[in-house]
Structures are given as C-alpha cells and as structure tokens.
TrEMBL record:
It comes from Actinomadura fulvescens. Residues 15-259 form the NADP-dependent oxidoreductase domain. SUPFAM superfamilies: NAD(P)-linked oxidoreductase. InterPro entries: AKR (IPR020471), Aldo/ket_reductase_CS (IPR018170), NAD(P)_OxRdtase_dom_sf (IPR036812), NADP_OxRdtase_dom (IPR023210). Belongs to the aldo/keto reductase family. Pfam families: Aldo_ket_red (PF00248). Keywords: NADP, Oxidoreductase. This is Aldo/keto reductase.
Length: 275
C-alpha cells in the first residue's frame, strides 16, 4: 500500500474503500471484508447512513486505531456554524470514534452560500485535534478559489468525481498550485461503461490485470487518492492489488485520451439537494 503526505504532514493511503450507496448492514460486511483484504482507509459520510455499520466493522476488526484512516463528511443541511459542530459530534458518536482522520465538507451548495461559514467551524474542529485533517468535496475551481481567498486553512484534499471519462485536468492543476491532494470518487466511472471501453482491454491484457486495476493504476500514477467502491469480495481484493505493475507513458496517454468531460454524478456548481 502506498501512502501520500497531505499538506499538513498527515499520511493517507492512496487507495481507500468507499461505501457510498452501501446500506448500513452491508457496510458492516463490506468494511470487514475490506479491512481483511488490507485496506486501511475507509470513506463514509453522514448522508450514506452507514457510519454505524462502518464503526462496528472497525471496532470488530481489531486493527489498531492509529493504523486506520477514517473519513466522513458534513452534510449540506449543516453548513451553519453551530450545526457543523453538532453534526460532527453526531458522526463521531455513530462511528464510535474520538477523532476522524479526515473531515470533508460534502458539497459547497453555492446557492446556499454558507460554505465559508461551514469551513470556519471545521477549522475549529481541526484545531481541537478531533479531525487530523480537513478538506472539501465537490468543490469547483470557483468555490475552491473563494474558500482559499476568505479563510486561513488550505483544504488538505478536494474529493471530486474523477475517472478517465472526467479527468478534471484544470482542477488538478489548481490543486497542485495550492498543495491540495486530489481524491477521486467513482474512480471506476461507476463500473460498467468505462470498464468496457475497448481502449482498456489491451492494456489490461498486457499486464495480466483487469480494466478496473488499470484505471486505478492510472489514478495512482497521477498522484491521486482513489476510493473504489465494491460490495463484491473478489473485486474488493482486486481493487487493492494494484501496486505490482506500472503503466508506461504511452499507456497513460491512451487513458488520458479517453477524457470527454462525462459526469455520472451531479454537477457541483448547481447541486443543492438537502436530502
Ligand atoms: P459491485 O459493488 O457490485 O462490486 P465507482 O467506485 O467508480 O463508483 O464504481 C463502483 C461500481 O463499480 C460498483 O457498481 C461496483 O460493483 C463496480 N466495481 C467495483 N470494482 C470493480 C471491479 N474491479 N471490476 C468491475 N466492476 C467493479
């Protein structure tokens, strides 16, 4: 497992296990499977409604807390200052933890325009040591630039939809300029369409790997963090078995050329679902 250092020195595994759309009971099983397969980073969120299942799996695993990297996220209804503090406490309590490694603001919700206020509350949580790092998710160049202009703490990461069909080249340049790590959600493009792309098959065959492993390798070699989601044990194992091969420049270029700005998830410039 490879790690990367965030901008405050905290070390984060480059591959994490995502549990979006995994119901609480299934999250317990899937996280147990993932920890057994060697994952040490787990990515959940208040809105996934599976923090308890994640927490139970973490507790039952016996893996020492300081070997784990747990991320959860602030939901869109809780951007007011005091709501952030309350929501964070509630997430910690559902997880059964006394700190998280990374706390993310889930969406900027520009129409509500409270993300600067929410970030200031998250800075307090960070100062208290109850989140070892804080970051954002689904921030665009515009919302990220405003946050950087108006607040003190540079986010450790921006977690965005990112896969070969949506390569986010401009955002990645902006992140690099500010020392913000890029974290990819739906790194496999949610599975089917992307993984069947004919460009991936010859590369996969050359390395004796699957198209999913090739795509994850592309993320790693771009210096990102990726959080593939699966509830299938064989795929959970496969998605972390990506540290024993390397794509060459031509193969990276072939995958870069697949970018077509195709989003599977919502557009963060307008997404204002309150759930
Ligand atoms: P499942 O959970 O049924 O195993 P993403 O992380 O990009 O959102 O992709 C998640 C989707 O991709 C899920 O539908 C998951 O299916 C599928 N998936 C995860 N890993 C693999 C893999 N190694 N090969 C094929 N499909 C995968």
């Amino acid at each position: 497992m490879e790690n990367i250092a965030l901008n405050n020195g905290v070390v984060m595994p480059q591959i994490g296990f995502g549990v979006w759309q995994v119901p609480d009971d299934e999250a317990y099983t899937a996280v147990t499977e993932a920890l057994g397969a060697g994952y040490r980073s787990i990515d959940t969120a208040r809105i996934y409604e599976n923090e308890e299942g994640v927490g139970r799996a973490v507790a039952a695993s016996g893996v020492p807390r300081d070997e784990l990297f747990i991320t959860t996220k602030l939901w869109n209804t809780d951007h007011a200052h005091d709501d952030v503090l309350r929501a964070f406490d509630a997430s910690l309590s559902r997880l059964g933890l006394d700190y998280v490694d990374l706390y993310l603001m889930h969406w900027p919700v520009p129409s509500e325009d409270r993300y600067v206020e929410a970030w200031r509350a998250m800075e307090k949580i960070y100062a208290d040591g109850r989140a070892k790092a804080i970051g954002v998710s689904n921030f665009t160049a515009e919302t990220l630039t405003r946050l950087l202009d108006e607040t003190e703490t540079v986010p450790a990461v921006n977690q965005v939809e990112l896969h070969p069909y949506l390569a986010q080249k401009e955002l990645r340049v902006l992140h690099a300029e500010h020392g913000i790590a890029t974290e990819a959600w739906s790194p496999l493009g949610q599975g089917k369409g992307l993984l069947d792309d004919p460009a991936l098959r010859p590369i996969a065959d050359r390395h004796g790997k699957s198209p999913a492993q090739v795509v994850l390798r592309w993320h790693l070699q771009n210096g990102e963090i990726a959080i593939p989601k699966s509830v299938t044990p064989s795929r959970i194992k496969q998605n972390i078995d990506v540290f024993d091969f390397e794509l060459d420049a031509a193969e990276m270029g072939t995958i870069d050329a697949l970018d077509k700005g195709r989003r599977f998830g919502p557009d963060p410039a307008t997404f204002n679902w309150m759930g």
